[in-house]
Specification:
Layout (H helix, E strand, L loop, with lengths): L3 E6 L4 H9 L5 E7 L4 H10 L3 E2 L11 E4 L10 H10 L3 E5 L4 H14 L3 E4 L6 H16 L2 E9 L3 H12 L5 E5 L10 E7 L2 E8 L1 E2 L12 E7 L2 E5 L6 E5 L27 E3 L7 H25 L4 H22 L3 E2 L10 H10 L8 H4 L2
Parallel strand pairs: 1-2, 1-4, 2-3, 4-5, 5-6, 7-10, 11-16
Antiparallel strand pairs: 7-12, 8-9, 9-10, 12-13, 13-14, 14-15
Helix pairs in contact: 1-7, 3-4, 4-8, 5-6, 6-8
Length: about 375
């Protein structure tokens, strides 16, 4: 497949898609921007030197892929209708999540009518640290069973959390989500006892949103710990680091006491927690400028594979339906988000935290002479 002409619909989160295309000019050509018609969107298209459209019908048939980065019906928008318009015309579509299962079903039907490929992009599974986490999880799963999962997220990124967990486990079915009674005082996280693919899951969801500032005020995005017989694999944040914590296990000596050193305790020499992947963490600037655009390019790469090999489309469609169905079950369990209006959080200087941590030195008992002073 040669250089692919791509339309981007939406200039809010769509900016990440536009940055992704800018980073791969040898593979993709930006064919235009579709938006409602704000001055910002028109100026954006003008700055990039590409056509601006405010109606899907205006877009020429020469477009190969339409990236629909508009709110779908699940969040009060018409993104699904726009996606289906292009699919029926034979334009391949990558649609940003979340997408309700009924909209995915309609999208797949429109894709068959237009002989087009359709995919839902959950973004986070393609972020590099998450891909590292999933690669290690797949290896460990080949060595032995998953014993438990402990996960937390904000409700607005629960959809991709389920995609990540499903990939880590190998499946999502069967699933169950049972909310636990709220305690006092009110906790920002809703506690869910869950099961995914036969694996016990403890899930915490911050089911809160600032109505005027919904993209902010999350205590975290994703945090996942998967327990194996040999230890716990942890994704500390959606953007890393990935940690491995070997399980503590020591043989006993002839008296029945745990051996603390010597032959047979070689496994005790391994650090109690190890950062995998070579990068301790990423800045939010790097997240916006590199990690997210790279994840979009990975999703586009997969879609190009579906375009080239139509037999792959059924599998991709079934997985998209599965993730959305699980998300519907989870959101039904946690209910509507609570509205919050907290103040803007003050940034905490990391240098001061590091200095405090370094100020704590190994404990050394005082000598008799020091105690007498």
């Amino acid at each position: 497949m040669g250089r692919t002409r791509v339309l981007v619909a939406g200039t809010a989160f769509g900016r990440i898609y536009l940055e992704a295309l800018r980073a791969a000019p040898d593979r993709y050509e930006l064919a235009g921007i579709l938006a409602k018609g704000s001055a910002y969107s028109r100026d954006y298209a003008a700055r990039l030197g590409v056509p601006f459209y405010n109606d899907p019908a205006q877009v020429p048939d020469e477009v190969d892929i339409a990236c629909i980065v508009l709110r779908s019906g699940a969040t009060g928008g018409d993104g699904a209708a726009v996606a289906q318009h292009f699919l029926r015309r034979g334009v391949h579509v990558l649609q940003e999540h979340p997408v309700h299962v009924t909209e995915i079903t309609a999208g797949l039907q429109a894709a068959r009518q237009g002989n087009a490929a359709y995919a839902v992009n959950t973004l986070y599974p393609n972020i590099q640290p998450v891909r590292q986490f999933l690669a290690v999880a797949a290896h460990l799963r080949g060595q032995g069973p998953i014993r438990f999962i402990d996960a937390a997220c904000n409700s607005q990124v629960a959809y991709p959390l389920l995609d990540i967990l499903g990939r880590a486990i190998g499946d999502l079915r069967p699933w169950s989500f049972q909310p636990q009674p709220a305690g006092e005082p009110a906790h920002p996280f809703t506690q869910i006892t869950a099961s995914l693919g036969g694996i016990p899951v403890s899930l915490q969801v911050q089911n809160q949103v600032h109505p005027e500032d919904p993209d902010n005020h999350s205590h975290l995005l994703h945090r996942i710990a998967i327990g194996f017989d040999g230890g716990v694999l942890t994704l500390a944040d959606s953007h890393g680091p990935v940690l491995w914590t070997p399980r503590l296990h020591s043989p006993r000596d002839e008296t029945g006491r745990l051996k603390l050193a010597g032959p047979g305790t070689e496994r005790l020499s391994i650090p109690t927690s190890i950062a995998l992947g070579g990068v301790p963490g990423h800045s939010h600037h790097r997240m916006f400028d590199l990690l997210w655009p790279e994840a979009v390019l990975a999703a586009l790469h997969d879609l190009r594979g579906d375009i080239a090999e139509p037999a792959r489309r059924r599998t991709a469609g079934q997985w998209a339906l599965t993730v959305s169905q699980a998300w519907r079950a989870l959101t039904g369990a946690i209910g509507m988000p609570a509205l919050i209006r907290p103040p803007v959080p003050e940034p905490i200087p990391v240098a001061s935290l590091e200095a405090l941590a370094l100020s704590v030195t190994p404990f050394r008992p005082l000598t008799a002479g020091e105690e007498s002073r």
